[in-house]
């Protein structure tokens, strides 16, 4: 899948700045707080002297998700301990410990949290007052917190996996998995639920011994007591909350290695491990292929988590991408197509996970690149149906309609009421990959490849926005590209395509094909049907309009004509 995100640093309707000075991650976050004060947002976001009863939801002011995230502190780490009974239809007891650094004077602070009962909160080991206000947990410590002071917060609470139509837990046939894009991590644990505030994570999952628990990062050991086992996992790199993953079930963990000895651990239903082995064996080659395109893999491990569930999407959870099992059982789909879906989620480890968007309007940077490498892989490994130029030409023909429906790539329209993941419209996928195609046409393949490598190297483990990309592209090209990007990223209509003066884009809105414009290739003996991940192919029937997948996460279209929202 692919989902919501950033702190506003600029009105997206305005022109792209000609330059954006490089900043460190923490410097970016703190400067964003200062900018918020200058813009008059401090009264709403930094009013930190009133008692909790008078304080409502804060939010970072993200244009698409205004109440997500909180100001006044930077989280440095989370330690989440879950106690799973073995029943995925019952609430779980959880202890979430948060370490943060205050970026201003604090008499109280807000955490994003919903769909759970808070039993107690301590700050610095002392009891703290707490009150729920909408989807904010407002906490008042027993002492004043000074700017620069480390704050340790411990919350005893529950999390409920039932009825999660808007994200968070996925109930599988034998347990649970997690899908937090775009704004659902706080429906599992209290957090600063915005991709601009990345942190290190530790997960401690206690479950019955017959089950296996897996989470982001690398295993740190297990402990057994009576009939229960505790599994501990820790990330080596900072992670956005929406990329957290916890899987519990009757699964097997298959260990092998990728390029340079990279640990690869795949998590699959035990009963299906033999049937899925052919797909799991492809991951090392996928990693090597991506490294040839953009440089070293950015994390400590990678793997594929195949959930025993029908979700309607795949999701780039950090170091362990989530896939639904039906994708790998669609025998009518060619192998190169399924593999291109796998590469899409892998590409996100560089674009979206290691380099995270500063605000949700920058999500095009995630999806454009993941879609680009998905399509490039399909062209290199597929047949004539997988032509990149054909796919981009088709996208160009539909681009004006997508912009009318969902807004330009870098200024997407707000989500539809009650459908927060509806920001993941076709313009975010193939409509944004089209921008990269136009850029490559303009600056040439060699400069484009240098840009891609430099982008992920310069912003590794950080956050970045559209202005950063414009600045770097201009730097690599040796010429200002501000006007080019202004038209391509913010224009209501699609500009002329460099090198293709004959390409035309229709003006009317057409029924969007799930996954950008992407369609799965139909079997040669049948008509076209929609499938996962938007690889080039035969158009889906116009009646098969995409609908949001369950659990609040954007997803890929299902095989065999069941249209779905795009995969992340």
TrEMBL record:
Names of the cofactor(s): Zn(2+)
Keyword terms, alphabetized: Aminopeptidase, Hydrolase, Metal-binding, Metalloprotease, Protease, Zinc
Superkingdom in the source lineage: Bacteria
Catalytic activity field: Release of an N-terminal amino acid, Xaa-|-Yaa- from a peptide, amide or arylamide. Xaa is preferably Ala, but may be most amino acids including Pro (slow action). When a terminal hydrophobic residue is followed by a prolyl residue, the two may be released as an intact Xaa-Pro dipeptide
Record Pfam families: Peptidase_M1, Peptidase_M1_N
GO MF annotations in UniProt: alanyl aminopeptidase activity; metalloaminopeptidase activity; peptide binding; zinc ion binding
Name of the top EC class for this enzyme: hydrolase
Keyword Lyase found: no
Comp. bias (Low complexity): 526-568
Domain Aminopeptidase N-like N-terminal: 96-241
E.C. number(s) listed in UniProt: 3.4.11.2
The protein's name: Aminopeptidase N
Organism: Streptomyces auratus AGR0001
